[in-house]
Design goal:
Radius of gyration: 31 Å
Number of strands: 0
Helix content: over 70%
Order of helices and strands: HHHHHHHHHHHHHHHHHHHH
Oligomer: single chain
Strand content: under 5%
């Protein structure tokens, strides 16, 4: 390993810093600070040469810093989990490509393989780092002295314990004085927890730093472009399948457009309730969209297209399939919108909406790459997934749910107060206007959890923008301005 002792020092420092910043009841500002410290240690250890090699993949730093920073902005447990997991994936990609290679050269299946492979390979570095950093031969030279010290302690402890018991019994005043002197809590449970946490975090840091600064193998993924597959399916067979699916999708899409987007909404529900209509086809249409994306990818990879005419015919047929699939996906989103209009928004429904927009973006990018740089579909799918994560954070789903469900309450008089009471501090500013239109019991239920959750101020590592704004709004809300302990 290169520079093992500086790397060991950096890993131990990051382990202690992780315990200080993350061993808290709630996460906030400490997480992006820790990520920034890890990136700083990586830049310091890699030096100028390492940065020159990492520059082609430095764009990964932007989404990593942005997603990690959202941990200090949003309070939602769903977003916290998503942001931490996304940061971990980006860290593994950055560690794999810090010393060379190009992330855009990976194929679609290479991304999970690289992330999992980097996580597994990082397990090798902590023991190697300890072996290379510590002078084992020097410790072996002191072995006889250490053994003598151990034998002396084993001899001393029982004798000391016996004499102590006799002296405590002989003099009551001495016994009371020693009891008072020794009656303090060492906090061993806390020390053990901190120690284990620091060692575990240091091992994680050592794994990331070691994998990023390793000596690369020329055969690693991302060094060269992903090798294309050998086409095995004839053009006639593939186009028979493509045109048949296009015809089926065209007929289905025509029906969807005629009665789902053009006709009156009331005509949709004949024979169904709104809930039955939305649920009846939503999941099936989403599955069709996913399968179509997989089918286009497989046909693009395995179909022989020797002549320019055959290439053009294939591209037109598969592009039409993607376009019709977008209509089917829009039908699924329309059904979900009808369900939300009838029953309001929930976290699952909002996240599903964003997922479908991301799936639609992936389908559009697939159509683009049919005509330009087919091998770049994978990196576009990665960017689409990162964009969906960022979009969720910008949207602030729990605030969105509160605002739209309260607007629906103004129209229909129906409101699930229990659902709103379970939302995080992200929703508190949007919930405050509801206090004037709800009954006293509903208002107390709505804010009871938030009054308890926000009853204590965050420490600096726990600081979170949404919790800060929620406390501020609660303090401004008249009779509800007692959530913060003096």
């Amino acid at each position: 390993m290169r520079a093992p002792r500086p790397m060991l020092l950096a890993s131990l420092s990051l382990g202690v810093l992780a315990v200080v910043l993350l061993d808290r009841a709630r996460w906030g500002l400490g997480f992006p600070v820790l990520v920034a410290a890890l990136l700083g240690a990586l830049a310091w250890l890699g030096g100028r040469e390492g940065w020159q090699r990492a520059r082609p993949n430095a764009w990964l730093l932007a989404p990593l810093c942005l997603v990690a920073g959202f941990v200090a902005v949003r309070d939602s447990a769903w977003l916290l989990t998503l942001n931490v997991l996304t940061s971990g994936v980006l860290l593994m990609l950055l560690a794999h490509f810090w010393a060379g290679g190009r992330v855009e050269r990976l194929g679609l299946t290479d991304y999970p393989a690289v992330v999992l492979g980097a996580a597994l390979q990082s397990l090798r570095y902590p023991p190697a780092l300890a072996r290379d950093s510590l002078d084992v031969r020097g410790l072996q030279g002191h072995g006889p002295r250490l053994l003598s010290l151990g034998r002396g302690l084993l001899l001393t402890l029982p004798v000391l314990l016996l004499f102590s018991m006799l002296l405590f019994t002989a003099d009551g005043v001495f016994s009371l004085a020693m009891d008072r002197a020794l009656s303090f809590d060492l906090g061993l449970d806390v020390l053990v927890r901190w120690g284990v946490g620091a060692v575990f975090s240091a091992c994680v840091a050592a794994g990331v730093l070691g994998h990023a600064l390793r000596r690369r193998d020329a055969t690693e993924r991302g060094v060269e472009e992903a090798a294309p597959a050998t086409p095995r399916l004839g053009l006639i067979e593939a186009m028979t399948l493509v045109l048949a699916v296009d015809a089926l999708f065209f007929v289905f899409a025509a029906f969807q457009v005629s009665y789902l987007f053009i006709s009156e909404t009331t005509a949709i529900g004949r024979g169904y309730t709104v809930a039955e209509f939305a649920r009846h086809g939503f999941f099936e249409l989403v599955v069709v969209s996913l399968l179509t994306l997989a089918l286009v990818m497989a046909l693009t990879r395995w179909t022989r297209r020797e002549s320019p005419v055959g290439q053009a015919v294939f591209r037109v047929g598969t592009s039409l399939m993607v376009g019709l699939t977008l209509v089917i996906l829009a039908s699924a989103m329309r059904r979900l919108s009808l369900y939300e209009d009838a029953y309001g928004y929930t976290l699952l429904r909002v996240y599903t909406h964003v997922f479908m927009f991301g799936l639609g973006a992936a389908l559009v990018w697939r159509a683009v790459t049919l005509w330009w740089r087919t091998e770049r579909f994978a990196v576009g799918a990665l960017v689409t997934a990162l964009g969906a994560v960022v979009a969720l954070n910008v949207l602030n789903p729990e605030d969105f749910i509160a605002r739209h469900n309260l607007a629906r309450h103004a129209r229909t008089g129906s409101l699930d107060v229990e659902l709103l009471s379970r939302l995080s501090a992200d929703a508190v500013p949007a919930l405050m206007p509801a206090l004037g239109v709800l009954s006293q019991a509903e208002a107390e239920l709505l804010l009871s959890q938030h009054l308890d959750t926000l009853s204590q101020r965050d420490t600096v590592p726990e600081w979170n923008f949404s919790r800060f704004m929620a406390r501020r709004r609660l303090l401004q809300a008249g009779p509800w301005r007692e959530p913060v302990n003096p």
